[in-house]
Amino acid sequence: MHFGPCKVASFAKVTLLTANNKTTPATRAAAIRTIGFLPLLAIFYGYTAGGPFGYEEIFSQSGPGMALVFLTFVPFFWSIPMSYASAELNSLLPVQGGFYRWTRAAFGDFWGFQCGWWNWTGTFLLNSLYGVLVMDYLVQYFPWLTGNAKWAGACLVLCLLSYLNMRGIQISGWVSVAMLIVVLIPVAWLCIASLLHWHHNPVLPWTPPGKPLGAIFGVGLALAMWNYAGYEQLSSVTAEMENAQKTFPRILLWNTPMNILTYTLPASLAIAALGNWQDWRTGYIVEASRRIGGEALGVAMLVASIIGTASLSNSTILYTTRIPAAMSQDGYLPAWLGKIHPRFGTPARAIGVSLLVYCLLAKFPVADLVNIYIWARIATSLLTLLAVWGMRQKFPSAERQFRVPGGSLGLACAILFPAILCGVKVYYSEPFVWRWAPWLLASGPAAYAILRWGLGLKPHPRGIAASRSEV
Fold first, then answer.
1. Torsion of the alpha carbons at 381, 326, 352 and 455, rounded to the nearest 10
2. Alpha-carbon 452 to chain mean position
3. For residue 2, what are the CA distances in angstroms to 108, 117, 282, 324, 381?
4. Which of 34, 120, 194, 419 has its CA 20 to 30 A from that of 27?
């Protein structure tokens, strides 16, 4: 059950009118630490890319030419519309918990809860996998890392990164900057070495000979969408940005071209040097580096792949744990979950609960289950895009420092193009995803009913005003 139209409008209006309130109890309890452009960009790059790792299969599945088309142009129909939508909503309502609270303000309690719940629970699968992937890279040099030893190592990685996140966004931010430097040095080395060994056309063949176009298109689109997903997550830490109204769009502006270059340049140059696009599988860029630049470059790229995966995990912990904290402050979840650490200014309890689930899931083979998570990501992204339309309907004359360009037609395209891509991705989902992903989405309404009617939790708007006061 959610608030009726009048109460929803009143809720959003209260949110907008209390935007400049600076003296709420929540902010007096614990000052939220903030960071500037460079560490925020490093965190966001770590979340949306983290380096040229984990996507190499697109070249053997779709062919080098088609893969480069996907990796170059999908952002214009997926990431950039999400960036535009997030920038407009942030200029209207710059609040901690961003896309979740935007959805709630636009469509009411029920859909706001779904947006936050799907994001939080879906990333349980995602981040548990990152801990395991770090161990998978290390197994190449430490073959005894199997079974419980591998699980313990994955848990140790997740615990370390969660601890750094509990200490504050400043530590996580500068750790991300250091990780970015460590990743980009061997990537640049590979690009230079590949240029010196260029022997093949990196875009031929356009598609794998003998494969049907439908299968090629579906797999390539899915992988490209996966790599360019999650741009709305930046909004979950709005209150932790210095000068959020200027910093937010600057990060979005810089991040997209960085990601495109990350996914296209190193791999295409390596294929131009080796010509063996058929051999490219997940993690193959390490082997390609060894073949092109020798053992030294291979080891450097292995270290970079481990650091890049750790950066993904670090950023995922940071962004996704702000959502349950915001939901708790809004009355959706138990109040203790949203408590801010009095010293570090972080949602330490939300981080701790999330860490426990990460470690439990890291015991199981969850790699295939990440394909289920993408349905939750699609649902969250579409709700964010629709929230732009919803807020324009509710507050057409409210001041916005940024608007999705093109007027009503531009907004329609910004919603329609990603929706079409999402529909194609869902259509081409594997049978086991069709069997299990609907259950992940169904957990949202079920949890809403249990928490509202079973535990008697009642949402309220004051959490948004409290978070906004630090922006």
1. -100
2. 28
3. 6, 15, 44, 19, 21
4. 120
Look at residue 241 and give its three-state secondary structure.
strand
At residue 35, φ and ψ (nearest 5 deg) are -135, 165
Helix (H) or strand (E) holding 271, with range, is helix 244-274
Residue pair 231/252 in contact by the 8 Å Cβ criterion: yes
* Position with higher pLDDT, 25 vs 50: 50
- DSSP string of 440-460? HHHHHHHHHHIIIIIS-----
The Cα 351–Cα 356 span in angstroms is 9
pLDDT bracket for residue 297 (50, 70, 90): very high
- Report the C-alpha gap between 376 and 382 in whole angstroms: 10
The pLDDT value recorded for residue 107 is 93
**Paired tokens of 101:** 């609270």
Contact 42, 176 (CB under 8 A): yes
The amino acid occupying position 20 is N
Residue 158 pLDDT class (50, 70, 90 cuts): very high
What is the spatial distance between Cα 448 and Cα 457, in angstroms, rounded to a whole number?
A: 9
Distance, in Å, from the CA atom of 437 to the CA atom of 429, rounded to the nearest integer, reads: 10
Token digits of residue 375:
């349905």
d(CA 125, CA 362): 9
In the prediction, which pLDDT does 28 show?
Answer: 37
pLDDT of residue 223: 80
Residue whose entry in the numeric block shows the structure tokens 């650091």 = 307
Which has the minimum average pLDDT: 10-14, 115-119, 291-295? 10-14
Q: How far is CA 251 from CA 39, 169, 257, 304, in A?
A: 10, 16, 11, 23
Name the one residue in this structure whose structure tokens are 């906004």: 468
Task: Determine the Cα–Cα distance for residues 395 and 53; give it in Å rounded to an integer.
Answer: 42
Residue 456 in tokens:
């008697």
5-17 and 370-394 are packed helices; what angle lies between their axes, rounded to 10 degrees?
80
- Mean pLDDT of the 336-358 span: 89
Residue 22 confidence (pLDDT):
38
Q: Which amino acid, 386?
A: L
**Is the Cβ–Cβ distance between 400 and 91 less than 8 Å?**
yes
